[in-house]
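Figure 6 in text form: structure in, sequence out.
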């Protein structure tokens, strides 16, 4: 029995000193395992007489239980210690200031498209779209621009490589082909605007090879020039935010409209600056006209029954004028400092306030 007390002390001592879970497992195997020391002593009981066997057996069982309990206790103490160390290591300091997050900005061209959509949306226009890669017929011929027409040269068209049959697709030079697609695909009355990308081989402070236009088209049975004027005056005043903005219609020429008019707004040029509104000067901002009966006919509609008006303008141009952005090329340089300066907070987008256009 004395020996057992020593043994207990020795085992419990080594349990307390165990460095980790592996060491504890080694002790368990060495003492209580199949070939362990205590197991060996149990096996030796068979050689004792019954009385001594009972007493020694009880003492050995107690020792076995005590060792098992000490192992369990030490195991859970080690686990607690590991948990505490982990918590200490991974502690989150909720009082730290947040990382500086920079807020995103809406690009001025997106803002301008949204503003234009919101204004025409209020007037009952819906949005139509067409492909950037067009065929010659939609981009030119159907719009009354036949192959030899000088307007083709003026447009600095990008042509794609020729197809097998010799015809060449183009990057659309204006959004006007969507007029054709809409008249072919839908029944009048029509009232659409078409914001989208357009392409011309041109590059300077007011031109970029890719730019944006918005096209407008109204086709109905009794549409006249007064509707064109009312609609575009209303748009110019709403877009530039000047209630009595002077708007002038100047006779012009486009193959797809007859008569045609360019639209100018009043402005003042002073000391190198430009202010939109009242003044001696005029600034051209868009092209328009009554849809040429030939175009209506090209789309399979009867020009004796249907008339309408159309208009088109450069979105970068009206955006530069409104927001005082001097160089069109900067729109596409992806300079974050520029975007932070000229961009808009997300909630400034008018279409989110006005609601989507049906
Ligand atoms: N497509 C013309 C251009 O790119 C703009 C234009 C002028 C569109 C008059 C029209 C219009 O619909 O009626 O220069």
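Output sequence:
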């Amino acid at each position: 029995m004395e020996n057992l007390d020593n043994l207990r002390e020795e085992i419990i001592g080594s349990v307390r000193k165990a460095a980790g879970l592996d060491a504890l497992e080694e002790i368990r195997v060495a003492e209580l395992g199949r070939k362990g020391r205590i197991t060996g002593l149990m096996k030796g009981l068979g050689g004792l007489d019954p009385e001594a066997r009972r007493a020694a057996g009880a003492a050995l069982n107690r020792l076995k239980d005590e060792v098992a309990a000490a192992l369990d206790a030490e195991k859970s103490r080690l686990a607690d210690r590991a948990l505490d160390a982990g918590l200490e290591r991974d502690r989150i300091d909720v009082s730290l200031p947040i990382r500086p997050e920079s807020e995103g900005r809406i690009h001025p061209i997106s803002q301008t498209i949204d503003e234009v959509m919101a204004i025409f949306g209020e007037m009952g226009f819906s949005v139509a779209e067409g492909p950037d890669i067009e065929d010659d017929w939609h981009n030119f011929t159907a719009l009354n621009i036949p192959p030899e027409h000088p307007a083709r040269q003026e447009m600095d068209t990008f042509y794609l490589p020729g197809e097998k049959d010799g015809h060449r697709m183009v990057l659309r030079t204006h959004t006007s082909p969507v007029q054709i697609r809409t008249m072919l695909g839908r029944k009048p009355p029509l009232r659409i605007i078409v914001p989208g990308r357009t392409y011309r081989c041109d590059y300077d402070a007011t031109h970029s090879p890719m730019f944006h236009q918005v096209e407008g088209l109204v086709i109905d049975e009794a549409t006249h020039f007064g509707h064109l004027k009312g609609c575009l005056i209303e748009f110019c005043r709403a877009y530039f935010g000047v209630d009595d903005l002077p708007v002038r219609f100047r006779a012009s020429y486009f193959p797809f409209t007859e008569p045609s008019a360019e639209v100018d707004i009043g402005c003042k040029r002073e000391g190198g600056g430009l202010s939109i509104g009242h003044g001696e000067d005029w600034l051209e901002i868009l092209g328009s006209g009554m849809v040429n009966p030939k175009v209506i006919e090209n789309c399979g509609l009867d020009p004796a029954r249907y008339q309408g008006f159309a208009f088109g303008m450069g979105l970068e141009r009206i955006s530069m004028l409104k927001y005082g952005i001097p160089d069109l090329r900067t729109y596409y340089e992806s300079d974050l400092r520029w975007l932070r300066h000229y961009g808009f907070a997300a909630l400034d987008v008018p279409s989110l306030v006005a609601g989507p256009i049906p």
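Caption detail: Residues 108-342 form a domain with the BirA Bifunctional Protein; domain 2 fold (CATH 3.30.930.10).
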